[in-house]
Design a protein that fits this description.
The structure holds two protein chains of two kinds.
Chain A: H1 2-11, H2 17-38, H3 40-49, H4 55-89, H5 92-96, H6 102-134, H7 143-156, H8 158-170, H9 175-193, H10 204-207, E1 211-214, E2 217-220, H11 224-248
Antiparallel strand pairs in A: 1-2
Helix pairs in contact in A: 1-6, 2-4, 2-6, 4-6, 4-7, 4-8, 4-9, 6-7, 6-11, 8-9, 8-11
Chain B: E1 4-15, E2 18-24, E3 27-29, E4 33-37, H1 44-51, E5 59-64, E6 67-68, H2 73-77, E7 80-83, H3 95-105, H4 111-119, H5 135-147, E8 153-157, H6 165-177, E9 184-189, H7 192-198, E10 201-206, E11 209-215, H8 216-221, E12 226-231, H9 234-243, E13 254-257, H10 262-274, E14 279-285, H11 289-301
Parallel strand pairs in B: 4-9, 4-10, 7-8, 8-9
Antiparallel strand pairs in B: 1-2, 1-3, 1-5, 5-6, 10-11, 12-13, 12-14
Helix pairs in contact in B: 3-4, 4-5
GO molecular function, one term (chain B): ATP binding
Pfam families (chain B): ABC_tran
Domain ABC transporter (chain B): 6-232
Chain lengths: 252, 303
């Protein structure tokens, strides 16, 4: 397994995966920087209105929608880039004619996808802390909340990520998986808006912030552990299905 | 049967209604260069993909190195190097890095990369991105990748595609030299002249069926040169020769014989001349392997 991972690592060299990894954190943090400086008064007023426990919580609440929409899109693109390296190189036939197990080939791609997303989330986490420090938030850094918000997203999007990777690996034309990924992300937004359908796993990324706006104001998201538990299991199940299909399929 | 490197029994691949490969019995022994010949779309690549376990056969058995491919895929692939159709190259990597990917994957010694680079004469271009490579260079990189693990069986699908004449010559010499180190080679091509110059064994596939499989000499033997005789009156000449007990496959203009030894030729000539016919042509017609190939494939096609 280590050999495949190291080989796959080299394939990512000079690829555009780095752009995707940086894109979402930078976009969202830039937006928040502008929001907290140019609209500072409005932000203060709203934070008060929502009874935000701290400016940190308001920041988390404020970026949760953008993050919930943006991160699945980043996952879609990252999956597409990682799979497309092989499509473009015409590499499947060579890779699978080597003495390596197909499930390990698939898992290696998944691990690198997860790694890229993990790096992206870490950058986001560090970025949020720096942003808060730069804007001189009075309260101490709620590391648990921030980390939960960032890394929770990885698990909340796990089924989606696993599905997108399978799509991108199976279909050569990457326009299709990217379109599906974009549609699913938007669907998640609509599903999350309705009480009935917000329990559909596709709607979890939008709702997976550690804080949410309730009647009494911004508070902790008590549904989050349930979301994460469901999507962790669903994600592993989808990953396994992807592996099984990949092992059995003919490679043209 | 240690020396049977590749054995397939009744190998068949069907895609819905279309049968791509049908009842193929392939035999390759150690040290052979097996030329796998067939027109485009005959099923060469499909067969090779099945040999490499890339696609599952609909029916039939594949044995490589005396072991069933289905049960021992990984240990068999360990001993194979392959280049299937267009070469694989990661355009964002240099030539050396492309080989490094494979070296890491198969945990091979590092100096092997330099060795294969010099074998295919890519050492100078090793540090250029492969997306800037010409087709011939990509093809050579593909061959280098196939050689990287010092395989016992090398499977090359159309290895000279896109190469210039000197490149073709180089690859041909390279392939010819491989059996000396105990390697067996399966080379596919749609060009008979190509196979003719390097193979020791030939398998001809057409419409998914093997229509000929033997040594290259057998293929040539099977179609010895013919004697073509131009004579003033074909009908009469035929009758005269018939009387002497010599049968001929005469056509409208010429008489045809399947023997060309000098004694036979002069005998025919003297018989005809003495019978008062004028002989204006005695010609030995050598049929190229192209003709033989066309004949083999068209005979099959007319069935």
């Amino acid at each position: 397994m280590k050999e495949i991972l190291r080989a796959d690592q080299l394939k990512l060299k000079r690829s555009s995966i780095l752009i995707i990894v940086l894109l979402i954190p930078i976009l969202i943090l830039t937006y928040e920087l502008v929001n907290f400086t140019y609209r500072a008064e409005l932000v203060d007023k709203q934070a008060e209105l929502f009874h935000a426990g701290s400016m940190w919580m308001y920041l988390l609440y404020d970026n949760s929608l953008l993050f919930g929409l943006g991160f699945p899109l980043a996952a879609t693109l990252a999956a597409s880039i990682i799979a497309n390296i092989e499509h473009q190189a015409d590499g499947w036939k060579q890779l699978l004619a080597f003495p390596v197990s197909r499930s390990k080939v698939y898992l290696s791609k998944f691990i690198w996808l997860t790694m890229s997303l993990l790096i992206s989330l870490t950058i986001f986490l560090i970025g949020m802390i720096l942003l808060g420090k730069a804007l001189e938030f009075e309260e101490s850094v709620p590391l648990g909340l921030l980390a939960g918000d960032s890394y929770g997203m990885l698990i909340a999007t796990l089924p989606f990520t696993a599905f997108q990777l399978w799509l991108s690996m199976t279909i050569k034309n990457q326009a299709f998986p990217i379109l599906i990924g974009a549609i699913c992300t938007i669907m998640g937004l609509f599903l999350a808006a309705v009480q009935m359908t917000r329990w559909f796993p596709l709607a979890y990324p939008i709702q997976s912030s550690t804080v949410i706006l309730q009647y009494e104001g911004i508070g902790y998201n008590t549904d989050l552990p349930v979301y994460l538990a469901i999507n962790l299991m669903l994600g592993i199940a989808l990953l396994c299905m992807g592996v099984i299909h990949f092992v059995k399929r003919d490679n043209q | 049967m240690d020396d049977q490197i590749v054995v397939t029994n009744d190998l068949t691949k069907k895609y819905k209604k279309h049968t791509s490969v049908e009842g193929l019995n392939l035999r390759i022994e150690r040290g052979q260069i097996y030329g796998f010949l067939g027109p485009n779309g005959a099923g060469k690549t499909t067969t090779i993909r099945m040999l490499l376990g890339l696609i599952q056969p609909t029916k039939g058995r594949i044995e490589l190195f005396g072991k069933s491919l289905k049960e021992n895929r990984l240990s068999i692939l360990e001993r194979i190097g392959s280049l299937v159709e267009s070469p694989t190259y990661y355009g964002n990597l240099t030539g050396r890095e492309n080989l490094e990917v494979v070296r890491r994957l198969r945990s091979l010694p590092e100096q092997r990369v330099d060795e294969v680079l010099s074998i295919v004469r890519l050492t100078k271009a090793a540090h250029r991105l492969t997306k800037e490579y010409s087709l011939g260079m990509k093809q050579r990189l593909g061959i280098a990748t196939a050689l990287l693990s010092r395989p016992d069986l090398l499977i090359l699908d159309e290895p000279t595609n896109g190469l210039d004449p000197s490149g073709i010559q180089e690859i041909r010499e390279l392939i010819k030299g491989l059996p000396q180190s105990g390697m067996s080679v399966l080379v596919s091509s749609h060009l008979l002249s190509e196979i003719d110059q390097m193979a020791t064994q030939v398998g001809v596939i057409h419409n998914g069926k093997m229509i000929f499989q033997d040594s290259i000499e057998q293929l040539r033997q099977r179609h010895k040169p013919l004697l073509k005789v131009g004579v003033s009156d074909v009908m009469e000449a035929k009758a005269i020769l018939q009387g002497k007990g010599i049968t001929t496959g005469g056509e409208k203009e010429f008489l045809w014989f399947d023997r060309t030894e000098p004694a036979f030729v002069s005998e025919i000539n003297s018989i005809l001349v003495q019978s008062g016919l004028s002989v204006y042509r005695l010609e030995e017609v050598k049929r190229s392997l192209e003709d033989i190939f066309l004949e083999l494939t068209s005979a099959e096609g007319s069935l």
